[in-house]
Each structure stands twice: as structure tokens, then as C-alpha cells.
Amino acid sequence: MVVIFGTLRIVLLCSLSGITLATKNPLLARDDACTALEAVLLGDVAYPNTTSYLQSANYWSIQQLETRPRCFVAPKSTKEVSTILRVLTQGNWPFTVKGGGHVPFSGGSSIENGVTIDLVHLNDIEVSHDRQTVSVSPGNRWINVTDILDPIGLAVVGGRDMDVGVSGLTLGGGISFFSGQYGWACDNVRRYEVVLASGRIVYASPQENNDLYWALRGGGGLNFGIVTRFDLVAFDQGEIWESSLSFPGTSNASAISLFQNLTIHGLPLDKGASGFVGINYHSSSGGYTTDIGLLHATVPSSSESIPAVFEPFQKISSATANSTVTGTVSTFIKNGATPYGRRWTWGNVVISASFPGEFLTEIMILFESRNVALLQNEGGDDIAPTALFQPIPLNVLQAMQKNGGNAMGLKPSNGPLIMISFPTSWTKAQNDEIVYDATRKLITDIEAKAKEYKVYTPFVYLNYADIKQEVQKGYGKENYARLVSIARKYDPQGKLAQLWKGYFKLDR
Ligand SMILES: Cc1cc2nc3c(=O)[nH]c(=O)nc-3n(C[C@H](O)[C@H](O)[C@H](O)COP(=O)(O)OP(=O)(O)OC[C@H]3O[C@@H](n4cnc5c(N)ncnc54)[C@H](O)[C@@H]3O)c2cc1C
């Protein structure tokens, strides 16, 4: 065995200097990807029933947890990522990449019987001397970043849940507490270090490979390469503030109309402000609540006061809960964390923020009837559906235009917008297809209603999209064609499209 590994190691090293693996070496052609990787990275390949494998198989949703790779490989440096990618693309072996493992869908960042590259050991975080930039390696979760930045009074535009990965959130867009001031997370990356399909290590910024820089800001990672470092814009930041309000029932019309008004008029005037409305079904009570989160990047000067932009919400009667809290970013993202251990799906529709009240009534009827049907299924009593409204106001759309704009193609003239997503969780695998189908139908029905009421936009937000939604096509024909041509330039043989299993890929 040792001899075989030794031979493989030599063959692989030869092949890395230009000889094609599978065709030149019959021994390697017979072998599998995990063995080939083990030959070049002794110790970093983990097989089932080992501690390292179990540690890597740590995913937020059960569907991803149930997807079992033949091995995990956990590189310790960019150079090792390069070696791994070269071995896999030259050997034509299917693989996927795991950052924080928070995509819910099976195969999102895990692969049945293939190789999952777990970036967990790439966990450096470095603050520049001038405090302008934080360089973050891709295995980090947001809590690792905020735990370092909070004590020194800095922040970056990042996630709102402690365990979500820096990689996936930033590559797909990245809605943050600080988006009103700075745009989404992807708009605040100064420079990427990227390993291409060939194993070549390149940099992407406004000055170097600026086409790749554009593509990585919202285009997702799968078609372009593995990002091994994000240089993020840093800014001074103290504690933040939140007001939480709860109302009984689904379509608290005054809450949603105030939220629309906040999105259209309030948020552009007070860029530190952000918020969301969640309509949540509770199986314990068999009823719905409308839950509002209003956040501000600056704590109001008096602990009693509320930022003026949020005052109208205090006037809605019938609140069953109304509280305010201040704290560090770490405190917020820890408190806001969504627990592991359930089955999940979601999908989203983005519409003009000025939708009429009748549209809201109609989509709430669609949402509730979908839920009634789901809950009546055998074993469906633990299904937990939510409709989550998030703003994309003009100030965010304006901030998205920096550095030549991002790949998502949203312009201030498209907005202001509101994204409605439908995160749904359950526990019984027998209900998987039922929940997926019902959620997809709900999205199609809401899109049809949005067209009828002339509030439809083709944009779909990648990070909350269902696997069947054609995300990049919603970025517009021109942007889609540009993404395809950039993918061809950096991966001329289309190896990533062919081998990197996952979703939200470009057609090539
Ligand atoms: C509880 C929870 C809270 C969330 N909160 C927010 C939020 O506040 N704002 C927001 O915008 N979104 C949010 N999301 C959505 C989240 O941004 C996406 O699910 C995101 O993809 C998760 O990133 P990850 O690294 O954890 O996921 P992973 O599942 O590890 O990866 C996601 C995708 O990125 C690819 N990938 C991973 N690392 C790399 C890399 N280094 N280079 C190239 N490709 C890579 C993977 O192959 C996969 O396709 C949340 C999700 C959850 C579950």
C-alpha cells in the first residue's frame, strides 16, 4: 500500500507540472479521487467513521448532513487548495466546496460519493495596520470575524447569524446590518484571492482581473474558482440597536404598509437603519404572528428614545411584545442564530416596494392556503412556514454601483424593492418533496400575481433562492452573457461547470 501511495505521489507531482493525469497513468485512472488526494496531502483526507470526517460533516440543514461524500479534504493553505483543484480537474473527479455549510439544499456544499473540499482550516483573519481592511480566509464563520473586530471598534459588512460562512454569504450578495450605509457584503470586498480550475492562483480587484472581480460580486463561486481570501472594507463601529415588535395574525396591514413606507421613504434618509418583517406560523399555538425587527447601526443618544425613522411603528396598537436592545455585533449575531437540526427549504420573489394593499392580501391568501395544505399532510404538524419581507431601498441600490457595479445588475432605477422569501422547516423526510413542490408553486403563483399587479422584477436573490430558480438569468441578458464569457475565460475547458456539483451554475 505504502508503495502504491508513494508511486501515486510521484505520478501526481509529475502531473502537476503539466502531464495529464488520467491519460498518462493507468494506475491513477483506476484509482479514485480520495486516494489521489491522499497521495499528495497526507493526513488531510478524512474518510467516514473518523473524527475528522464527522467534524467536517457539520451542516446546518439535515438534508446536507445526510449527503455523504466519499471523503472530505481539508486544505491548510492556498497552495494546497491549488494542488487539490489541479488533481480533481485533471482527473475529472466530481467535487464540491464547503464554507460555513449553511446552504439548506442537499448537494449545496456536500456531495454524495464525491470529494467535499472543507475550507475549515483556512481560518486566518488579519486587520491591516491602517484599520481599513480585514483579510478573511474562507473557512471563517461571521462570529470569528466579529469576535476579533468588536473589541477594537471595527466592523465589516457581514452576516447576521453567527455560524453562517463568510464565503457563501459574500459570494452570493450578503445582506447585513450595515447594508444601508455600504451596500451588500459583496460590494465591500476590496480584493479576492482565487484558485482557478487549473490550480493557478490569481487576484481580482478593480485593478487586477477586474472582470473576475465583477463576476465574483454576486455571481456565486461555482463557475469561477475557489476564493481563498476576501479583503473586506473595514469601518469604525460601536454597539448596534434593535427594536422588536410582535403582533398577532398574518397580514397586519398597518405593519406591512409602514414597512413599505420605511423602505421607500425612511431608509434612504437614515442609512444606518434597516429592518425586516417575518410572518411566522407557530405549531404550538396553531396561529401566526407578525414579527418586526428594526435595527440601527448607531445606538440612540438616550436609552429611552427610538430613531425617528422607526417612530411610526410604535403607534400600531395590539403589539404583544415590544422591546429594545443594544449590544455588540457579536451579541446580535449570537442571539439571532437559527439552530441546526431541521430540514429546510426556501425561495424568494423580489417586487417593487410600492405594491398595493390588494396584492399583499392576495399573496397572504396564497401563503396561508399553501400552509394549510402542508400542515394537513401526514406528519406535517411540525412544518414551520415563514414569509420574510426584507427591504432593498434606494440607498442600498446606490451603494451597489461602486467599483463599476456588481454582477446582480440592480440599479436605483429598478427600485426601491422588497424581497419576500419563504424559509420553511420540518423534520420528517417523507414530507421533503411535498414541501419543495408547495414552496415552488407558491413562488410561481406569487410571481404571476406580481406580474398581474405590475410589481414584478426578474431579480432573484441567490442566497435565499430555491435550487430550481434561475438566479443569474434574473441579472439580465447582458450580465448573464458577461458572466458566461468570464467563466469561459478563467476556466476555458469548463471543468468547474462539469465537476463542481452544486447549483446556481451558468449554462455553458
Ligand atoms: C441561519 C441563516 C442565516 C442567514 N443570514 C443571512 C443574512 O443575514 N444575510 C444574507 O445575505 N444571507 C443570509 N443567509 C443565507 C446565506 O448567505 C447562504 O445560505 C450562504 O450561501 C451561506 O454560506 P456558507 O458559506 O455558510 O454556505 P456553504 O453551504 O458552505 O456554501 C454556499 C455555496 O458557496 C460555495 N462556496 C463556499 N465556499 C466557497 C469559496 N471559498 N469559494 C467559492 N465558492 C464557495 C459552496 O460550494 C456553495 O455553493 C443565512 C442563511 C442561514 C441558514
TrEMBL record:
Residues annotated as domain FAD-binding PCMH-type: 65-237
Listed PROSITE patterns: FAD_PCMH (PS51387)
Name of the protein in question: Bifunctional solanapyrone synthase
Entries under Pfam families matching the protein: BBE, FAD_binding_4
Signal peptide as annotated in the record: 1-22
Chain segments annotated as transmembrane: none
Species for this entry: Lachnellula occidentalis
GO terms of molecular function: FAD binding; oxidoreductase activity
Keywords, ordered alphabetically: FAD, Flavoprotein, Oxidoreductase, Signal
InterPro entries: BBE, FAD-bd_PCMH, FAD-bd_PCMH-like_sf, FAD-bd_PCMH_sub1, FAD-bd_PCMH_sub2, FAD-linked_Oxidoreductase, Oxid_FAD_bind_N
Family: Belongs to the oxygen-dependent FAD-linked oxidoreductase family.
